[in-house]
Amino acid sequence: MSTQYGFTFAKDRCIQCYGCEVACKTWRGGEFGVRWRRVHNLWQGRYPEVKNLSVSVSCMHCANPECVKVCPVQAIRKRLEDGIVTVDRAKCIGCKSCLKACAFGAPQFGTNGKMQKCDMCLNEADLSKGAPPCVETCPTKALQLGRMEDTEKLGTEQTIQRLLAT
Fold first, then answer.
1. Contact 57, 37 (CB under 8 A)
2. Residue 30 gets which letter from DSSP?
3. What percent helix, strand, coil does the chain show, rounded to 5?
4. How far apart, in whole angstroms, are the C-alpha atoms of residue 7 and residue 143?
5. Which of 42, 101, 125, 146 could bond to 66 as cystine, CB 3.0-4.6 Å?
6. What percent of the chain shows pLDDT beyond 70?
7. Distance between CA 3 and CA 95 in Å, rounded?
8. What does the alpha-carbon distance between residue 122 and residue 100 come to, in Å, rounded to a whole number?
9. What average pLDDT score do residues 101-115 get?
């Protein structure tokens, strides 16, 4: 696969409004405690020299998703046509192997114990005509969705991993 959809995030543009998180939650009707998109506030330094930035994270629909590799029942797959990583909840056994393998903490587990996560609003938004609500809501365009090459996707994944490690 050479091109696929992917999220990018510009940390310098984020104003910590949580619009992306709220839009995802309300658009998809997520249950209490389940967050497919999360805004992480990252703090560095000591008073009085404290710095803060935020990063918006969901399933990255990775170039080489570890969750797909570790699922013992093959409930998770990466679509060849667009790179979107999906989960078949009917097949999921709730073992949480995917959560342990995911560098972004994307897999979420609701009251039924089955894995759920961002699917780029597949079946609810036409990505060829517009972005999902999390992206559309961002007032500063810090969060974007678009087609990208595998190498760009890997770079984006590494950037988010570095930010979360701070």
1. yes
2. P
3. 25, 25, 50
4. 7
5. 101
6. 99
7. 31
8. 24
9. 96
